[in-house]
Amino acid sequence: MNKDIVRIESWNPCRKGLVWASKQGSLEEVWDKCEDASWLFFICRAEDELNLKKEQSVAIAIAVASRALDKFEAVCPDDKRPRKAIEAAQAWLDNPTKENAVAAYAAYYAAYDAVDAAYAADAGYAADAGYAAYAPAHAAYAAARVDNAHASARAAAHVAAAYATDYAADAAYGAELKAQADIFKLIVPNPFKQQTKE
User: Fold this and answer.
1) What is the residue extent of each domain of the chain?
2) Helix (H) or strand (E) holding 153
3) pLDDT tens per residue, range 78-109
4) Residue 196's pLDDT band (boundaries 50, 70, 90)?
5) Are 62 and 88 in contact (CB under 8 A)?
6) 47-57 in b/e burial notation, b at 16+ Cβ within 10 A?
7) Is the pTM of the predicted complex or chain greater than 0.85?
8) Cα dihedral sign for 52, 58, 62, 65?
C-alpha cells in the first residue's frame, strides 16, 4: 500500500491510475515506475508546487514531437513546416526572446496548415501522417504561448504517441508512452526523491 495514498486520492485521478499508484510504495516510486507521460503531466498539474517551468514543457514538447516527425515526412517529404515548427520551438528554448516566441507562433500556424495539406493530398496514410504534424505544431505553440505551455506539451505528447505508432498495436503504443515518460523524467527529475529522503 502506498504511504502517500491519501495525497494521491486528493488529486482525483482516474480509477486505473489510482489502483496502479496504490500498489507503489511511495510517491517517489510512482514517479520512478511511471510509464505514461500523461500521468507525469497529471502529477505536475495536481501538485501546485510541481508546476512545470515553461522551458521544461517546451523541451518535452520538442522531444516527443520529434518522435512523430518521421511519419509525416515519409508521406510529405517536401513539406518542412512541421520540422520548422520544432526548430522554432528549439530556437525559443535556446534564446527565449519575444522575437523567437513570435516566430514559434508563426511556425505553429504553418505546421497546422501542413495538416490540411496532408489531408488534401489524400494519399494512403496522408491523413494520419498529416495529423502527426499536430505534435510539432504543439511544440511550437508551447514555445509561443506565455501561458499554459504545459497544456501544449501534453497535447504534443498525446498526438505523438497516437500517430507515431499509428495506433498500430497496444504494445507499440505502450512502448511510445514509456519512451515519452523516460524523456519526461530526463527533463524533470523526480520531485519526490528529496521529500522521501528527509
Assistant:
1) 5-50+190-194, 54-187
2) helix 149-164
3) 888 888 888 998 999 999 999 998 888 888 88
4) very low
5) no
6) eeeeebebebb
7) no
8) positive
